Amino acid sequence: xxxxxxxxxxxxxxxxxxxxxxxxxxxxxxxxxxxxxxxxxxxxxxxxxxxxxxxxxxxxxxxxxxxxxxxxxxxxxxxxxxxxxxxxxxxxxxxxxxxxxxxxxxxxxxxx
Amino acid sequence: xxxxxxxxxxxxxxxxxxxxxxxxxxxxxxxxxxxxxxxxxxxxxxxxxxxxxxxxxxxxxxxxxxxxxxxxxxxxxxxxxxxxxxxxxxxxxxxxxxxxxxxxxxxxxxxxxxxxxxxxxxxxxxxxxxxxxxxxxxxxxxxxxxxxxxx
Lengths: 112, 151
Fold this sequence. Notes:
The complex is a heterodimer.
Chain A: E1 3-8, E2 11-16, E3 20-21, H1 26-37, E4 43-47, E5 53-54, H2 56-69, E6 74-78, H3 82-90, E7 99-100, H4 103-110
Parallel strand pairs in A: 2-4, 3-5, 4-6, 6-7
Antiparallel strand pairs in A: 1-2
Helix pairs in contact in A: 1-2
Chain B: E1 8-13, H1 18-30, H2 37-58, E2 67-75, E3 78-85, H3 116-123, E4 125-132, E5 135-142
Helix pairs in contact in B: 1-2, 2-3
């Protein structure tokens, strides 16, 4: 599970370069997210632009990633394809995370 | 133009990569149906959840691997899928309720699982489970590739 991280306008952007977050990689994803987010502060934008498919295990791993960031940080999700967005909508997780269709719209909206 | 497909039969052995392999084979076999992206997304999600459950619960870690067979047929009312495995049966011999997860809760109480059957029951119709001898049989229908009758 390949994650890269950069900071723009005090937002930490974590980009996923794999095309799937599914049961096969859910634990790996959660661990990689911990590595990326344990030392920063503020809002994390998870860039899912490359991700074509998320199943319920992947969804669970994203929820777990948010929990391990603690109450001091917030997680927003960006770059959701319609199929990926549907998983969040059906499970009502769209009420838990702010969802953005593109990374640009997330950065515009969340920038201070 | 969508073309009819013959019955599709896919067989994999349970294991870490079984679900990805089976889903890839299924998407390839369904190509002639020319499904819209949201339709093939629904098929992939339902089947991912059904197959993940088999790999996790019917053939749990530490027990021997076993076969998973998928059969797909396309009819006028949608895609009919049957998934058969020879692993452990469902608890009580019944499908889980598939209730929606509670999301109006504290951060640390948010669910990290239990979404699978809810998604299956939400996206598929006529979901049926039977234990037949040594086998689990899951049948369901997904309303995709339906001819537009107004044309």
